[in-house]
Specification:
212 residues, alpha/beta, six-stranded mixed sheet, 31% helix
Length: 212
């Protein structure tokens, strides 16, 4: 859907005890389905993934994989941690260890997608860390799953009200895939780079990329 969308995406996944094993697997499958909508590569979309429970775990960074196949395999191999919902720790590690100058790209948008089925254990710390992430220029999209979510906190985490999405349960995540892609890709601009011209055929060789 997003084609040549160029961005640095980090998925932040709830791995706390409140999530059943099967639901956690559905969350991973949802990430794979979303990733498949993008063109992955060194000059295209980069993907990183982190999960959180009692602690925050970075599974791979933005520059670790260059193909969708590698990313899908890495995502599906992520284990569930169990424990509390320390969303604040995930946002802190995102800011300090995943959005560093050596991992992100200049003039390319950074987008973090937080998926959770409940409120964090430390709401104020979570809001503070989200504000710090956003102050650094990263856009946050928040996805709430199920009926135990904290809508007020989700809106505080997200960059705007339109950056908050809801799914009734983990079975319904697929139903918001297109909505997530529309939100994530809105505002992108078409960039055409032409590198060569053939005098014999009068053909101009160009590549098309889109940026937020």
């Amino acid at each position: 859907m997003c084609g040549h969308y160029v961005a640095d995406f980090v998925f932040i996944l709830d791995a706390s005890t409140s999530i059943y094993y099967s639901h956690f697997d559905q969350q991973l499958e949802f990430v794979v389905d979303v990733v498949e909508a993008f063109e992955i590569g060194p000059g295209l979309t980069h993907i990183g993934v982190e999960s959180f429970a009692d602690s925050a775990e970075i599974h791979f960074n933005l520059r670790d994989y260059d193909t969708a196949e590698e990313i899908s395999a890495a995502v599906l191999a992520i284990p569930q941690q169990h424990g509390q919902t320390m969303t604040n720790l995930a946002l802190e590690r995102l800011r300090l260890e995943m959005l560093t100058p050596d991992l992100i790209r200049e003039n390319v948008p950074q987008v973090a997608i937080v998926i959770t089925d409940g409120g964090s254990d430390y709401t104020m710390l979570t809001r503070e860390q989200a504000d710090l992430v956003k102050a650094g220029g990263t856009r946050i999209i928040a996805i709430g799953v199920g009926d135990s979510i904290n809508p007020e906190e989700l809106h505080a985490i997200a960059s705007s009200d339109s950056d908050v999405l809801y799914a009734d349960d983990y079975n319904a995540l697929d139903s918001i895939r297109n909505s997530l892609l529309l939100v994530a890709c809105e505002g992108m601009q078409l960039i055409i780079t032409c590198t060569s011209f053939s005098i014999d055929t009068f053909e101009l060789q160009c590549s098309v990329h889109t940026f937020c």
